[in-house]
Amino acid sequence: MNYVIRALTIDDIDLLYAHSARALGESGKPGTPYFHIYDSVSPWTPVPEKTRERWTKPLTELGWSRTWGLFATEESGTHIRGAVSMISGDYNSNRHRPSLALGVERDHRGKGLGEKLMRTAIEWTRNPGDASTRFDYVDLFVFMGNEPAIRLYEKLGFREIGRCADRWRIDGTSLGDIHFTLPLRSGIALNP
Ligand SMILES: CC(C)(COP(=O)(O)OP(=O)(O)OC[C@H]1O[C@@H](n2cnc3c(N)ncnc32)[C@H](O)[C@@H]1OP(=O)(O)O)[C@@H](O)C(=O)NCCC(=O)NCCS
Question: What is the pLDDT of residues 76-114, one digit of tens each?
Fold first, then answer.
């Protein structure tokens, strides 16, 4: 199969939302550990205007996000089968540490594509193309027990800096999470 990774624009939003609906539906199902925080009371809801606003916000403002898609050319057409997002801090005081979110659909895992998506987003974060913007860390949270994701983050140099048991309760399932961070420069202090 032919795969291409590229930054998404608003023209890609329908393909992205179709991917998100498929991928999120796999969470907690056989073969996939829980990986998202939505439940039946607060399900994932696509909000195109919000996505458009976040994708077009300059990095000098708060509330931006950027997403890269994994495009697969298949017999049925072109689909997004994986995506990674970098999401700005909510406050001026934490804008130096954006957060990362990642997912690859089940049939496309184990081929090195999640790692390629991660490397694409991390490379952009090191050089975001805006002279007045500098990021020092990438943060993410992962549920305890999500071994494929944990191994991937460790492989790419993320370090665990905290964990919290019973942080989430998803339709009766208690989940703890681990806070991982990637320092983008040498000499940056992590937790004592
Ligand atoms: C985590 C995820 C993105 C990995 O994507 P992937 O494309 O299958 O991963 P890759 O093939 O690029 O693997 C890269 C590395 O990840 C780790 N890894 C991936 N799958 C693994 C598995 N099943 N068991 C252990 N380690 C695994 C390995 O370190 C691997 O490197 P290696 O091949 O040199 O051993 C994918 O499993 C996924 O989308 N899961 C559901 C969503 C999710 O959990 N997102 C993260 C939320 S925090």
Answer: 999 999 999 999 988 999 999 999 999 999 999 999 999
Under the banding of pLDDT at 50, 70 and 90, the label for residue 171 is very high
Give me the residue spans of the domains in the chain.
Answer: 2-183
Q: How far is the CA of 92 from the centre of ligand 1 (A)?
A: 32
- The minimum-distance atom of ligand 1 relative to the CA of 143 is 48
Model pTM score: 0.97
Q: Whose CA is nearest to atom 33 of ligand 1?
A: 112
* Paired residues of 7 in beta bridges: 68
Exposure of 185 in the CB half-sphere (CA atoms within 13 A): 10
pLDDT of residue 186: 81
Token representation of residue 3: 């795969």
Q: Which H helix or E strand runs over 80?
A: strand 77-87
Q: CATH classification of 2-183, choosing from 3.40.630.30, 3.30.565.10, 3.30.40.10, 3.20.20.140?
A: 3.40.630.30
